[in-house]
Design goal:
The complex is a heterotetramer, with two copies of chain A (about 350 residues) and two copies of chain B (about 400 residues). Chain A is of the alpha+beta class and about 350 residues long. Chain A is about 55% helix and about 15% strand. In chain A, strands 1, 2, 3, 4, 5, 6 and 7 form a seven-stranded mixed sheet that branches. In chain A, strands 8-9 form a two-stranded antiparallel ribbon. Classes of the chains: A alpha+beta (about 350), B alpha+beta (about 400).
């Protein structure tokens, strides 16, 4: 019985943290459209992009717990890279649902960072749902508009949800190929790109069997490392606020000596801790393919979204006016929290999924 | 309890309405209505020029700074008349944001502490929008703890020489004059060593830099002072009395009652009642209704709390610190509303530029500017409920011996 | 323009407050089954029970604003009397919907306190709604079970919602008459009685025209003084907490000097103030029969329920262990807050009514 | 990260399970399962007698106070073995509530400060449930501020003479012994003038009165001391050292990990999923689902936070103040859940006696007993996050010169 990461996993965490502290610079990525190719290459060289991809497909074959460790550090460093889209979601979709040929074609490239893949399901306002998908595939050609697509500005491959002969299914689409037009959207988090993609007869190849159930099972799996990214962000926002509360003096004493600030920070610690514990549960469920994966993933997602939003908001409040300036990083965490809150579907979707699991249990 | 005007009030309202009908710049109406939260922009004219023109027109007809004496450019109107005017001016009051600090805080301070000649020189052009004023109080190292400011003013002949830095100054770059709180004696406890001045913002040594905000806007400035000379004649109050002068200024801030802070609720209600492509509107969901109802009740609660303040004022009571409620509730509410709207949009909430996205990014500032949520709760607890002040470790300590940041 | 009570109304308030401070004793009413007949007679003698009943029907004919003034003081004093049931709700129902004969028969007795009337609509779990009413009237005889009936243990007259020939309607039933059996229920607030009433062919006479719309319009009117009762309770709970925070010393200083306590009290003040302002709006709407009465009443009810719950809860918290003893009154306010929260329908009902009004507006 | 036992753990679990299967008093199972929050009652037997009998049976087989040394009636087990035992004992651990204070707080204090003969005399019967102990710390005038207590103990020959009053003492009326914190020197600062004793609860001058709670129950007592004599040999620690002895006691409170505080969530989930007569269940409403989901996530968050603590302990770390989270979250959550359940019932929520009504009335106590929400937030802020302590005005002041209530 040991409900914690192993010593090796903790060592990995420290290593990734050091690397990202040195190389991740969210601000410099803003001008570059929300991606840092050099950082991405560095992560690939360390084997982080394919950490959960089996060695036979060019990955490190380490496992899901390791993937979660890296995701947390990406969140904490606010790393401006499409890690959650490509290394967590897309790689997992292809690994779980892809044909042998598809795995061999794409996983090595996702692992070595030479290709970036993203998930494109949403078409306008509202969470993705079967009755909201108008994009169609017919004769191997995809037509429709997907918006917004997270990290879509820097992606090579799209995993696109569309309506085919057998109903809603997933399709692989080369985003550098014919029939694909992208236009940039203004992102709440300028360290991550957001685009609209217009498909006009783009060649599309089915990924796995059709059916929305499959998509949902995939999303559960992708939600786990995403929750870790949020937990990392929440923790860092809490740390920033704590450090500032110790440093900033008002009325002749550190503002962290005022109960209003102390208790705000204590509440942040509580929500960050609950989120972390749920994320650990989900990581265990993912790594062991436990029957409760759906419930654990939804719990982790609900809890992490609440915690990151709460910590990012209060981090600004503790910083006062300074927290609202462009120069302080507080607003970047606040923006990232808003972005991740609805990536993969907003809170209501995960709340409903969680309750559905509880009723079924 | 009634919302009807008395006969005098009705007469005043009719007069105001008639003048407004003949004079409001209707060409800006559409732009003013559609301006997103916190940003007013006109398509065909510079907002500063338009604001000044409208203020000038009001002043010429006796409708500027209603509660100021006529001699200084006002109308000598009652508080209730001022509220009626606000109601009638409606959307066009958005053109006055440039003057809020000058009319609400700088003017009253000048009125209370300057000499007669100065008042006649400075107040009428301020009322008429010909000259813009700003307020130079906050500093990087002192936000909530205003009396901890460090900008030094040292006497030199008939002048004072000022060095230091101010921050969060609205419209500094557009201002002709400013009121400036400085430290003139660091060897006495912090509240006792302050002195207030007013100065020409174009004095040599004044440098203004915009502050870029987390939401990308730049509503405020930093103002640097390097050997700026201010004549002693522009001192407001006696040396060392600056804290009580500043309290006068801040007290006047509370007089801007009747105006309810924006909460985002009307926008949210409209959004939730608008059906999507599938014909369903967010309000069809009971979770959404529950939140809407709570916000609606808070929103009307704020509106009628303001009405009660107006009634209290018309009975001759000063508006009290209970008005701190408005900003405390509105700031949090806007942040909640914006966050929930983004949730309801799903991933589309990630796209910046919409009204709720703008609220989401701007609302953290509302919870800080002009008093943080925490300071407002302290004000309510201490001044309304009579609870003890926080323990002060710096109260009787000479300023230069107090612990400071860093 | 004057959005406040008049000098005369404020004088009435002071008078009622003095009277109740002297005569209302919630604790002694507990053993007596949740009613204080002596206090009730005293209120009748002061003309408070018929304050909004026109003089021609034996009332004081003062008006709704005065009714609200009294209701607030009843709430503040935690008066153990069926004021909201009899003087606010039942009297208003009969006045609005009753025939001339019904008004002449009952209003003078409600005004002089010789009769107590209550509203009986609910049948078990859930708010009253047309599809939840199984009680029937046929041939002038009522059959069914109403539970819980607030203040039902001390009532003489019931206004009962039941299904008749024309659909759901209201009926007057003599609770001292034949075919009526009451059994006491354990009340969350033992200063107010709660019973189950079993009707077996009890004589029932229609009150007004049938139709649930009518009932809802009545409930709007009754909700306004009820909100004042809640506001009075919230205000008193806040005062108790404030006084205790000033008096109780810990760590060498009044606990009211700690920000955690100060800010808790500030938040209580905020919610109590918002509730009061909404209640004033509703009182104005009721007194002037304004078109926005429905919206104002629902706003007042939502706001007052939130405020009373919040203030009663935090009043206990400020009192610490003492707040949890039977001897301190804190728990009585907490119990009354819980009782009033669902009397006339719970929060969800009023929230939905409020949103429905907003959509219609 | 795994939930599986190591080989040793599995062996221990098997042994415990086998013994339990053969020995648990299954006749109480139904009653234990259906006991409402905070009140355990057995239909056919006195709960005290049943609790003592079960404890005795466990002790005889070596399953009492697992982490205590064998010499004092324990088993010398590891923390993780203790957790495994708790998991296996399951519902029957409800029979141990009478001993929680004695085993969790009094025993460890005696173990740390009494002499060897005393330990051998008192600890085994405590472990075996033959003697019940209580803890006499809180006083009417000092709740959160424990060190502000006033009960005096004055030396008189080989005895101390105690006068004063304690409050919130669980099971005082059932107790044979108690540990008692007193003030022996009021002329020094408050933390320095305290001394700890243990005493026979049947000593002359001890009077016990139950406290009637706001929810009608009486779980606690007031204990009055009038010239009660305690032999100096029953002093625990040196005179004036009582505060650090008390900290030992309180620190041990935190060792009761692995147990998750009740939140009311399972009951609420069951209630919301149960259809009414019309076939609709509360969970069919999206507002209900939203709240259920948030509570579910908090509930599992607490469960797995406890799991993480256990893992930390098995790595040799002491459970830290971060465990304060459990009560802080659970107390508020139970109050929220109870309030919402009552809302959902509509007027039927006004009828007392149901499980949620009981929770509603009991939950305010949870938010106070054993540390208020505010004290817990202070503990987290100071001991976990390293923020400064509150400013203390009474720290270096002689106790008899400190301001007091009233």
């Amino acid at each position: 019985m040991n409900f914690d990461f192993s010593d090796e996993q903790r060592e990995l965490r420290d290593q990734v943290r050091r690397f990202l502290a040195q190389h991740a610079s969210p601000r410099s990525a803003i001008a570059a459209g929300g991606h840092d190719p050099a950082l991405w290459r560095g992560m690939a060289e360390l084997g982080l992009l394919g950490i959960a991809i089996p060695e036979e497909y060019g990955g490190a074959g380490a496992g899901y717990l390791e993937l979660c460790v890296v995701a947390e550090e990406v969140g904490r460093a606010l790393a401006p890279v499409p890690f959650s889209s490509s290394a967590c979601l897309a790689a997992e979709f292809i690994l779980q649902a892809g044909s042998e040929a598809q795995k061999r074609a794409w996983l090595p490239r996702l692992a070595d960072g030479t290709a970036i893949a993203v998930f494109a399901a949403v078409e306008g306002v509202g969470d993705a749902a079967p009755d909201r998908i108008a994009a169609t595939v017919s004769g191997g050609r995809l037509t429709g508009i997907k918006s917004p697509v997270l990290d879509g500005g820097v992606a090579d491959l799209g995993i696109v949800a569309a309506r085919g002969a057998d109903g809603i299914g997933l399709y692989l689409v080369d985003l550098r190929g014919a029939g694909v037009a992208r236009s940039g959207l203004d992102s709440m988090d300028p360290t991550r790109s957001l685009v609209e993609i217009r498909f006009e007869g783009a060649p599309a190849e089915p990924l796995g069997e059709a059916g929305w159930d499959t998509v949902e099972r995939m999303l559960d799996r992708a939600a786990v490392p995403l929750a870790f990214e949020q937990v990392g962000g929440a923790d860092r926002a809490l740390e920033m606020a704590r450090d500032y509360a110790l440093e900033r003096v008002a009325f002749g004493r550190p503002i962290g000596s005022f109960q209003a600030v102390k208790h705000m920070l204590a509440d942040m610690y509580v929500s960050a801790t609950l989120a972390r514990s749920n994320a650990y549960w989900a990581a265990w469920a993912l790594a062991t393919d436990a029957a409760e994966l759906g419930q654990a993933a939804a719990s982790a997602r609900v809890s992490a979204t609440e915690a990151f939003g709460h910590c990012a908001r209060n981090n600004i409040q503790v910083h006062g006016g300074m927290g609202f300036t462009w120069e302080f990083d507080c607003h970047l965490f606040y923006r990232r929290a808003a972005l991740l809150a609805t990536a993969l579907g907003g809170p209501a979707l995960w709340e409903d999924r969680l309750v559905a699991q509880l009723r079924a249990a | 309890m009634d919302f009807d005007d008395t006969a005098e009030e009705a007469a005043f309202r009719a007069e105001a309405r008639a003048w407004l009908r003949a004079n409001v710049p209707t060409e800006y109406e559409a732009d003013l209505r559609s301006s997103p939260f916190g940003r007013i922009a006109l398509r065909n004219r510079d907002i500063v020029a338009a604001s000044k023109a409208w203020q000038k027109r009001k002043a010429e007809a006796g409708w500027a700074c209603l509660h100021w004496p006529k001699d200084y450019g006002g109308r000598g109107a009652s508080p209730i008349e001022r509220v009626i005017w606000q109601q009638e001016e409606g959307i066009y009051s958005k053109l006055s944001s440039l003057f809020i600090v000058g009319h609400g805080m700088c003017g009253p301070t000048v009125m209370a502490y300057a000499d007669e000649a100065q008042k006649r020189r400075y107040l009428p052009p301020l009322a008429a929008g010909e000259e813009i004023w700003c307020q130079l109080f906050s500093e990087p190292a002192c936000g909530s703890d205003l009396a901890g400011l460090r900008t030094r003013a040292e006497p030199d002949g008939d002048d004072w020489v000022v060095n230091g830095q101010k921050i969060w100054t609205s419209h500094a770059h557009l201002s002709d004059y400013g009121i400036l709180l400085t430290r003139t004696d660091p060897t006495v406890p912090k509240h006792k060593g302050l002195t207030m001045f007013f100065l020409d913002m174009r004095s040599p040594g004044v440098e203004i830099r915009p502050i870029r905000q987390g939401d990308g806007q730049a509503e405020f400035n930093e103002v640097y002072f390097t050997d700026v000379r201010i004549p002693d004649a522009q001192r407001l109050g006696r040396p060392g009395e600056g804290w009580s002068v500043a309290l006068t200024t801040l007290m006047n801030e509370r007089l801007s009652i009747g105006a309810v802070m924006p909460t985002g609720f009307p926008e949210m209600l409209a959004f939730c009642c608008t059906p999507g492509p599938d014909g369903r509107a967010p309000v069809d969901d009971s979770a959404v209704r529950k939140r809407l109802a709570r916000w609606a009740a808070r929103s009307s609660g704020l509106r009628f709390t303001a009405q009660r303040s107006i009634s209290a004022m018309s009975r001759g009571n000063m508006p009290g610190p209970e008005n701190s409620i408005g900003k405390l509730v509105a700031g949090t509410m806007m942040q909640e509303i914006a966050g929930y709207a983004l949730e309801l949009m799903g991933p589309a909430g990630m796209i910046a530029g919409g009204q709720f996205q703008a609220m989401m990014l701007r609302s953290p500032a509302t919870r800080v500017e002009g008093g943080t949520d925490e300071i407002l709760r302290n004000i309510i607890a201490e001044r309304v409920l009579g609870l003890p002040a926080d323990i002060r470790v710096d109260k009787d300590v000479p300023f230069n011996q107090i612990a400071r940041t860093g």
